[in-house]
Amino acid sequence: MQAVRALALYTSPGVHVDLAAIGVDGVALRELAAGDLPDGEGGPGVWLTPAGSFGETAEAISERLAALELPRDLCLVLVSEVEETFLAPAADERVFSYLNPHAPAHLQAKAVRSALLTVRLRSEQQGLAEGLQARDEQLRELNNIGVALSAERDVDRLLGLILLKAREITRADAGSLYLVEDDEQGQQRLRFKLSQNDSLDLDYTEFTIPLDTRSLAGYTGTTGEVLRLADVYSLPDDVDYSFSTSWDQQTGYRTKSMLVVPMKNNKGEIRGVLQLINRKPSSELKLTSPEAFEREVIEFDGRSEELVESLASQAAVALENQLLLQNISNIFEGVLMGWVKAVEDRDPATAGHSHRVTALTLGLAREVNRVTTGPYADIHFNQQQLEQLRYAGLLHDIGKIYVRAEVFLKAKKLYSHHLRMIQERFDFVRRTLEAEYNRRKLELMIDNPRSDYARRFEEIDRAFRQQCEEIDDYFETVLLANEPTVLEEGRFERLAEIAGNTYKDIYGHSQHLLQTEELRLLNIRRGNLDESERREIESHVDWSYRILVRIPWTPELQQIPFIAWAHHEKLDGSGYPNKLNSEQIPFEAKMMTIADIYDALTAADRPYKKAQPIESALRILGFERDDNHIDAELLRLFTERQVYRIAHMDRVEEIINRLIYEDVL
């Protein structure tokens, strides 16, 4: 509340006043020269002046008084022998009361005393009103600060905002902020996190100090007591704490008045310490000389202490909430990365795919942000939307955990156990042939003991080698047919011929060299999957949606399930799982589709195909664009801005964070 100034009694020439007779304390008598008017600088008060000082006639007096501009805290007492009705109404409004100079002295004193007390009451009311208004403004400011603190999600920016607002409401030239933390042994200490200074532009680094009573911040952090110090260079001798002047000596700054306040949460636990330095009469003032420090620095008052205590409590709660949210976010991040690793562990062939697709999608989104013309000039991704893209990218294949591992690990058309069985079968046929031809040699020796066996043995060996070569040729054909193809190829008649050949098993039963299931798989025309396996692989998109849609995402992340669900859709409606057309596919999914296709083409870790060179991959993407499968404008940005380079960089996880928060590669 603004203090009430002392009252003044202004007297014009010809008016004599006995202050003692009036009996009002704290009144200063101020005599004016002829023709002078009170300027109000002497404080609120009463002006006692003869009516004749304004003119000779009632009309002249009325005209002069009506035009008179008097301070609001000044009462005019007009000395006149005539009744007040002689003045015009507009002039009469300027007069508080009339005083007859011939009235008894005690009545004159009573009239002046009444005017003075009225002015004092008005002044006190004005002071109260100004104080209430200032308190109301401060409360509104505190409320606005609380809203701002609650809205800030970044912990570092939140700390900066806390210190800035504390300095603003106290007009502190500088300040610092400490946080309570545990060291490696579980002992609490203070970490210097932040410093601000209006008069000096200095860099700072974080450091820690003991949480004890030896330092100012440590004392407040330990005891919870507020320190309000007029000059830290003149501390009492009987206190535990001290102030080190080393920083002032290094920088030329002069730390003088200080307010040190604990940041307590709603449980009364101290989470940090605010240290405000050098309160000033005006926030705009710079302290640039020793004289300025001595002349301009003022003490922090009780109201400053109240305000900062209130702000510090809000700040501690806001900080604790944000740290809690950060911990929850870290836990979720750990779970998320666990899911991604679970997918990669089940399908090592795609290890790193999710991160590369995420980085490529974010890189393309950043390029969309830079577009100023064309169909996507009005599209802009903010940080929260980029974070949504990150989660969608990392989790777009999470549904693969529901697909059989053997399908993921299937590198060829045949499963490994199929190929082993075929190899063992062909080995059995070779051993059977060898046994058969050895039997023939033995029979020849028994039936013709005196014959020349060399020529006959050579014929038997030639026939044996011929059949073994045929078996080897069959097996080589199987191995070649087992390789996945990128494009459709014909001429699988040779496989049917091989499958038509039979042999006798150990029980004498006739068996085909290739079983029906083996022949079916070898006859896969494109890739390494049959139709049922392909559908099972494609089902991962539905599974991803089912998993992600059950997560209670915040409103800013609600689109994650739908983006992941649509990353295999095509603009012409020929994609899966829902055959969406261009208008139905989320824009984010259109970007992710290009990223997903590119990485699938160029990744060197796919067992069923070789990695495509960059030029070849971009050419294939061009074919996809021509077939109206992917967005032409997005592919143009992807290619011309060389977004694809991101997939071939190291430390992709770091790149992802930089694309979200820094926009730099």
Largest sheet: 6 strands, antiparallel
Name the beta content range: 5-15%
Q: Could you name the ranges where pLDDT drops below 50 across 5 or more consecutive residues?
A: none
Spatial shape: elongated
Provide key terms for this protein.
6-stranded antiparallel β-sheet, 665 residues, 5-stranded parallel β-sheet, single chain, alpha/beta, Hypothetical protein af1432, Beta-Lactamase, Rossmann fold
In words, what does this structure look like?
With 665 residues, this protein is of the alpha/beta class. It is 50% helix and 11% strand. It has four domains: 7-127, Response regulator (Rossmann fold, 3-Layer(aba) Sandwich), CATH 3.40.50.2300; 153-318, Beta-Lactamase; 347-406 and 533-661, Hypothetical protein af1432 (Orthogonal Bundle), CATH 1.10.3210; 416-528. α2 links the parallel β3 and β4 (74-79). α4 (105-151) packs antiparallel against α5 (155-170) and α4 (105-151) runs parallel beside α9 (302-346). The model has no long low-confidence stretch (mean pLDDT 86).
SSE topology sketch:
Blueprint: E1 7-11, H1 19-22, E2 27-31, E3 45-50, H2 58-66, E4 74-79, H3 89-92, E5 97-99, H4 105-151, H5 155-170, E6 172-182, E7 188-197, E8 207-210, H6 216-223, E9 227-229, H7 246-251, E10 258-264, E11 270-279, H8 290-296, H9 302-346, H10 353-370, H11 383-395, H12 405-408, H13 416-447, H14 453-482, H15 493-500, E12 502-504, E13 510-512, H16 516-522, H17 531-548, H18 560-565, H19 587-602, H20 614-626, H21 632-640, H22 652-661
Parallel strand pairs: 1-2, 1-3, 3-4, 4-5
Antiparallel strand pairs: 6-7, 6-11, 7-8, 9-10, 10-11, 12-13
Helix pairs in contact: 4-5, 4-9, 5-9, 10-11, 10-19, 10-22, 11-22, 13-14, 19-20
